[in-house]
Amino acid sequence: MKNAKHMDKRLITILLIVFVQMLGAAMIMPILPLYAQREFNMSPQVITLLGTAFFAAQFIAGPYLGRLSDKMGRIPVLIISQIGTAVSFLMLAFAPSVAFLFAARILDGITGGNIIVAQAYITDITPREKRTVALGYVFATFGLGFIFGPALGGLLAAVFGPRVPYVIAAVAAFVVVLLTYFTLDESLTAVQREANRQYRKTSINPRAILINHHLMLILTIAFIGQFGLGLLQATFALYGNAVLFAGYSEQMVNLGIGILLMLVGVGQFTTQVFILPRLLKQFEEPWIVAAGLIIRSFGLFIFAALAMPLFGAVASLCFAVGIGIMMPPLQSMSTTSVADELRGGVLGVYQSTISLSTIVSTAIAGVIFALNPTWPFWIGGLLSVVVLLPAIILIKQTGAKLRRPAPVTTSVS
User: Fold this and answer.
1) Residues 327, 330, 335, CA angle at the centre, nearest 5°?
2) What b/e string do you get for 325-356 counting C-beta neighbours within 10 Å, with b at 16 or more?
């Protein structure tokens, strides 16, 4: 990030916090499905419901946590949610039963507003015209977490056993709590928090969302686009074990899946740091969203049609670039579709939309996978193509030009 020295120090701090948080979360991603399968003899249909439980809890809690942070401040909510994540990782590490696994995922979902609140914090300290780039840095940080986390989780599981990565992830989450408490200042003043509590002009309720046409289009794109991602998230490790790395040892399967997820991180980081800022200088946000959908669908079709490790690497990079291009502009446009007093709330609604889509997709992913391991990727790719329609409608409604207009310069004679 060549402009890092000019960045707000608070932004750098929050990005560091997000990185440590994502590192811990990414460590468990490639090993949780296999851990559930090998240690608890769970079927694919039940394993994917672990993701459903997490996102169902997050769907319910997300808007409340976001709106609570508008009223009470970002830091208290951030700390509470981070503690919940740390405890949930410890529950996974020492789970004695399947029920305990589900309880851990539900707790993490309920307190899983840490990323939502971190994003709200960034919108507090960033001017509207710079929010897409700033939120892009969050996705770059996600990418860094995915570069190191999955490979580290797979390596730790292979060397020390399947429970150790969860303990390490819990330690990382507790480190985040300390970083937040000792290094981060509250972004909302007492006056702003009081104004947010008293704000009654509009609110984040179903009716307000339905009559906000731009927000509805954004949420529709996010929902349908996320559906395909949910299918992939729920079945990726199982797909790697059954198809991409069929015939390999358990240790090599863990490591191979971790490396592919690492490539997703590389693609995310590269996209946010080098590609997205340049695209934003040339093209308007709705057009960038459409381009991201096309690239993402291409990656999913490669996964479905060319199920080999080498092509899996190419597909991982394409998928990461597509997601990295489309998601920050969508989030940024959602925050500018409502009053500033509702930023945290609308980010909570956005996240709940993502969660609702993931609830449905992960609930049926195991059934689809059991029918054919490649079908989740075919369906995800087709959905990315279908969601181009609301993206085009958003382009027309916003009047977005294909290219950004050149800045107006005035000369003094």
Assistant:
1) 125
2) bbbbbbbbbbbbbbeebbbbbbbbbbbbbbbb
- Alpha carbon 391 to chain centroid, angstroms: 20
**What crossing angle do the helices spanning 250-270 and 32-40 adopt, rounded to 10°?**
160
Q: Are 17 and 179 in contact (CB under 8 A)?
A: yes
State the sign of the Cα–Cα–Cα–Cα dihedral 30, 32, 36, 38.
positive
Rounded to whole angstroms, how far apart are CA atoms 328 and 110? 24
Which candidate, 398, 4, 359, 16, places its Cα nearest to that of 216?
398
CA distance 163 to 91: 10
**Prediction pTM value:** 0.68
One-letter amino acid of 24: G
Does some domain include residue 408?
no
Rounded Cα distance, 27 and 361, in Å: 22
We report the CATH number of the domain holding residue 146 as 1.20.1250.20
- The Cα 343–Cα 361 span in angstroms is 27
Rounded distance between C-alpha atoms, residue 222 and residue 333, angstroms: 12
Roughly what angle, to the nearest 10 degrees, separates helices 213-239 and 343-371?
40
**Rounded distance, CA 357 to CA 222, Å?**
8
Residue 30 has pLDDT above 50, yes or no: yes
Domain span holding position 213: 4-185+206-398
What integer pLDDT is reported at residue 72 of this predicted model? Answer: 82
| Residue pointed to by tokens 């309880």 | 103
Residue 135 identity (one-letter amino acid): L
Chain segment 281-300, per-residue pLDDT in tens: 888 888 999 999 999 999 99
In a domain, 161, yes or no: yes
Evaluate if residue 139 carries a pLDDT over 90: no
Residues 24/172, Cβ–Cβ less than 8 Å: yes
